[in-house]
Please model this.
Amino acid sequence: MATVAYETENAVFQFDLNDTVYCLENCSQEHSATDTDEILKFIKSSPDESITIIDDYFGYIVLDLTEKGKGLVKCKTCSKVYAPDQIESITVGHGKTPFLINLKEKGGIIKRLFGRKQKLPGMFGGKGYQCPEGHELIAMITWRT
Model:
């Protein structure tokens, strides 16, 4: 079976080639991303059965495939292999989307918006995954203000 691998500092993700190509083609049509097209060209032109992707943009594809329950991940810290349903979703920064901002200060966003005039600070957020032992496997910023 042909596979696609992506390595982070703490983990190695492995996906079926067909699942990866399908996901990349859908992302390319939905978002017209040139990064996606370049990765697709690389994968389709590779004669190898096992392809390793180095492009950082592929991390977003890893998040999408993992969210859909595809592939396997090996945690380098505890040296165990996990299926997507065994790992835990985590949030990065202010949350997974800008619509679910996680403010941890007294007064909240309403007071800051309608209190005195001030420039809103830049915020960011994203998502990632950790193994059942609590080791971070991948974390990506998916939005900024």
